[in-house]
Amino acid sequence: MLYQIIVKVESEAIYHQPYKLEIDNFILGVMLSPDKVVEELSIALRVKNYQDFLPQVSSDIESQITRIDMRDSPLCFLLVDLAQHIEALGSFWFGIKKIYWESPKRAWIAESFEEQEALEFSTHDFQQESHENKCYREMSPGMLASLVQNRLLHQHLVLPMSFYREACNDFSSGRYTSSFINFYFYLDDLYGQGKTKNKEVEKLFKSSEHIRKAIEQTIELYQNVGDSENLDQLKKFLDMEKREFNVDGIIELIVQVRGNLSHFSQKSSKKKGHPLNQREFRSMAYLINSICIHTFIELTTGEMPK
């Protein structure tokens, strides 16, 4: 039985025809666009004990709920790891810009009648999308007019809000470490007073009425809407950095994570961001986004940072 993932590829790599390649127990397939540009890559592995990894279906008679457990994660991680390797080194050799390994199409492929029978009652072709939901907002004539009329009042917000805009774009694209940094620059510009040392920035942020209120509102939001995922991830980051779950602790965490993301070494014991673990920093980007939103609501009235 073959287990396969198919990933979209953004690249400047070309070839005159699609092809398949068997190497080191992997079966690779290269698919091309009409212009002969590489646009998809399939990576497959032959699995002898496939029964241990096929989806498992169970039903609860009382609730009449059917549950499907996807048990292919170890295989998927193995193939994604190879996709990441090809993406990283292929950036030089093949002009690969991006392999979308975050949302691979996963499939089981039977190679015999017996294996085909095993797949008949299983989900064997599936894909988990990885993207952020869009939130559309109305651009009314009155709101646009207000934006123009208050341009002098809000002139000092143009640069920090440009960082905010970039941060939102990064967040939507799954570049969560870049998103965090750009949200941080928004706060740094408005409330950091040009200080560069962590302790000095922490002191200023802790003394900021806007930031403290924004963090309190964010914690309240997490708890009121039952946002357990982001709340749990926040607490994990606080534990890693040995910070308390309160306003001061969250400020210290934000400043520390910014420092951690400014340097990189595989030998570091700190949690570092890199192109392959962006998802792990989503909760931090989400947190600081909320803080920026709540501070901007105060500033849009014409009030200066305080």
Can you characterise this structure?
It is a single chain. With 306 residues, the protein is an alpha+beta fold. It has two domains: 2-127, no CATH class; 151-299, no CATH class. It has helices at residues 73-93, 113-119, 141-149, 158-172, 176-191, 198-207, 209-224, 228-240, 247-261, 282-299, and strands at 2-11, 19-23, 26-32, 38-46, 56-60, 65-69, 96-99, 105-109, 125-127. The strands form two sheets. Strands 1, 2, 3, 4, 7, 8 and 9 form a seven-stranded antiparallel sheet that branches. A two-stranded antiparallel sheet has the order 5-6. A hairpin with a 2-residue loop joins strand 2 (19-23) and strand 3 (26-32). Helix 4 (158-172) packs antiparallel against helix 5 (176-191) and helix 5 packs across helix 9 (247-261). The longest helix has 21 residues, at 73-93. The radius of gyration is 24 Å and the shape is elongated. The relative contact order is 0.10. The model has no long low-confidence stretch (mean pLDDT 86).
Explain the layout of strands and helices.
Blueprint: E1 2-11, E2 19-23, E3 26-32, E4 38-46, E5 56-60, E6 65-69, H1 73-93, E7 96-99, E8 105-109, H2 113-119, E9 125-127, H3 141-149, H4 158-172, H5 176-191, H6 198-207, H7 209-224, H8 228-240, H9 247-261, H10 282-299
Antiparallel strand pairs: 1-4, 1-7, 1-8, 2-3, 3-4, 5-6, 8-9
Helix pairs in contact: 4-5, 4-10, 5-9, 5-10, 6-9, 7-10, 8-10
Organism: Brasilonema sennae CENA114
Protein name: ApeA N-terminal domain-containing protein
